[in-house]
Fold this protein.
Amino acid sequence: MTTVEFVALTHFFQPEHRILDNLSFTVRPGEFLVILGPSGSGKSTLLRLIAGLDTPKSGDIRFDGHSILPLAPAERDVGMVFQNYALYPHLTVWENLAFPLLIRKEARHIIEQQVRRIAELLQLESLLDRKPRALSGGQQQRVALGRALIRQPRVFLLDEPLSNLDAQLRQQMRKELVRLQKELFLTTTLYVTHDQTEAMTMGDRIALLYDGQLQQIGTPQEIYHRPANQFVAGFIGSPPMNFFPGRLEIHHTELRFVATAGFHIPLQSWRPEGQPRSQEGVLGIRPEHLQPMATSELFAAVVEFVENIGHEAIAYFSLAGSSYCFRSQQLLTPQTTISIGLHPAAQLHWFEPSGKRSVTWSRE
């Protein structure tokens, strides 16, 4: 199992627009690390730099403490799966799987043994004589995975490999990928996606990129419950966190949040995990931490739109010209006036005006 380290990694095509900007973090041996971020954040570029398809402008990439930048792509011992699978259309499944070993000039009996093993693991035994055009999207995806895995690389790179699959197959393949990585191969894996559901359900840790910079790295629970800044808080979670502009004030010796929208939250019974440095800012509250109440704890609002998704409803409302939402187990209808309060397990997240620093409050 290999440690992958990025040291002040910088890459650009035009100096004024850096695709990756001074990126530094470490992927642990055998870890399944998800690289998450919106389009254009530098996720796929990072994989291309590891694979040797591009060369960084500055910084270093190290495997187990040794730089791989002087090595040619073929010498880096990485397996990569692209979004479009990149299978050889004129070769059968058997030939696609065997290709990396044929290039290495492995003995015929070893190639046969390895192809059969990978085909069995990925349930491709009955498809070995077919060509890619005769395969479904899920089958092509498994062939692409098998071709990368058969090399037994030091590092496994996956660039949005599930994005072309339907929802049900994508969910199935998430579980299968994690099982293969954890139970059979134990290969250090970097998985690129813009889908936060994939990131939250698959990753040991998530590295969230935005505009070429690392915003936060941590477990899914750490990133969800302790976002490092307002971008992370707004990107992780569906629907996203509600943001209420306002200020912190001392009222009769007690601290409270006063929202621009006209409501306030006393904070004396809440425990902060840090010290706010600014009176002005934004208070973040997850949709599941707002709930309908018999009497108004915070404010009253008119439900404008409801998404009923079976086990719960997501209700949208406006306050001071901005749109917000909450989750509810109740049956809700539009144009209903309801009272909104805080869930007993609610957390509050205070973001300073720059959006670069946050403080989380939990109930004592």
The two ends are 42 Å apart (CA to CA). The chain has eight helices and 22 strands.
